[in-house]
Amino acid sequence: MTTAGTRTVGVDLQESSEDNRRIIEAIERDNPDCRIKHFPGLIKIQVPGRLVVRRETVEELLGREWETHEFQMAIVTYYGHIQEYDDDEIVLAWDH
């Protein structure tokens, strides 16, 4: 649920490969409040408050092992602060 004053976080990803499309699908699945805008070759994903990328979901959709550092190959930019970035999860949110 979005409340007044909730800041939006997001990522812009290249839609250049099947792997990236599966990562986008995983983000949609794990962030049901996300809004997605399609541009030629680029996807903008915005989420109120907190965006999560879970390794387990990405691996399920890719059908192979995926390491969270591979996310850097897909993103163009992000907004928000990286609150967690480990082997299982990437979390973007604002610190204040």
TrEMBL record:
<keyword id="KW-0503">Monooxygenase</keyword>
<protein>
    <submittedName>
        <fullName>Monooxygenase</fullName>
    </submittedName>
</protein>
<comment type="similarity">
    <text>Belongs to the TmoD/XamoD family.</text>
</comment>
<keyword id="KW-0560">Oxidoreductase</keyword>
<dbReference type="GO" id="GO:0004497">
    <property type="term" value="F:monooxygenase activity"/>
</dbReference>
<dbReference type="Pfam" id="PF02406">
    <property type="entry name" value="MmoB_DmpM"/>
</dbReference>
<dbReference type="InterPro" id="IPR003454">
    <property type="entry name" value="MOase_MmoB_DmpM"/>
</dbReference>
<dbReference type="InterPro" id="IPR036889">
    <property type="entry name" value="mOase_MmoB_DmpM_sf"/>
</dbReference>
